[in-house]
Amino acid sequence: MDDPSIFxxxxxxxxxxxxxxxxxxxxxxxxxxxxxxxxDMDGTAKLALLSMMGEQKRLQKMMEEAGGEEEFDMCKAIxxxxxxGESRGFERGDKSGFERGERQLSSLISRLLAENRPDLIALxxxxxxxxxxxxxxxxx
Length: 140
Fold this sequence. Notes:
Elements: H1 4-18, H2 24-33, H3 35-40, H4 43-52, H5 56-65, H6 74-114, H7 118-126, H8 128-137
């Protein structure tokens, strides 16, 4: 990279993207709006950008998948990083929701057992509408 103006342009792209590091939606919009400029970045600038964003492990994986070549599509790399982050977020959300649901049902069953209401336990387990009404009535 002998041309100082190209170097400045790459630095501007890198620092522009770094400000969106914690806002994936903004990062994605920026990448879409600047797709051509990002695609034109040289391999060193692309590596620097991903490294500065804290994506060393995923960067290594992408490089291995690209056969070790430094030339890869930066926009695709960003798309992959965002998709991976979304996937991990969905997994965490599913797990959290499942755990919350189990605690809620367990609390409901405990209360119904304490009130000696096995009839309502059977209904709560088999009928989502009854279960929702019971959650509401017990403030669960």
